[in-house]
Amino acid sequence: MTQPDLDIRSVTIDDAGELLTLRRAAFVTEAQQYGDPHIPPLTQTLEELQEDLQRDGVITLGGWYGHRLVGSIRMLIEGPKATLGRFAVAPDLQGQGFGTQLLMAILPHLPEGIEEVWVFTGRDSVHNLALYAKHGYEHQHDQTAGDLTYAYLRKILGDGGAE
Known about the structure:
This protein has a single domain (7-160), classed as Aminopeptidase. By secondary structure, it is α+β, with helices and mostly antiparallel strands. It has helices at residues 16-34, 40-43, 46-53, 98-109, 126-134; strands at 7-10, 58-65, 68-78, 81-89, 116-122, 138-145, 148-156. It starts with 6 loop residues before the first strand and ends in a 7-residue tail after the last strand. Strands 1-2-3-4-5-7-6 form a seven-stranded mixed beta sheet, with helices on both faces. Helices cover 32% and strands 34% of the residues. The chain is globular and about 35 Å long.
């Protein structure tokens, strides 16, 4: 069975409440895995999220399945580099291809001149690491912050690694 396509577009301030709910639902599993209920996607307030959605250099895409926001991904643009974060898919729909559709949708939304895309995830997040590796992201280094260790992966765009 083929996964239906998502309607992928920029998340607006009007979508902030739904996005906050989606992220909290999606990141609970990760917080449980690492024994840390205070990870940023779970502690961000609605006001902080609204500010982030309006921030220069931030692009947040959402994936709608019908009228429901089922996934999102945030990109921070810094010069020739984009950093992915807050990548979330509704828990009841994980593993069905929605995350892959969102990940593949970022390239057309990146401004010209982006040479590399970075992403970080928990070092023990096996499914996340496998998804990124499948799409050309290569592990660069690990970094510890508090009790968590993050794996940082990079994908070179253009002739060096575009999909």
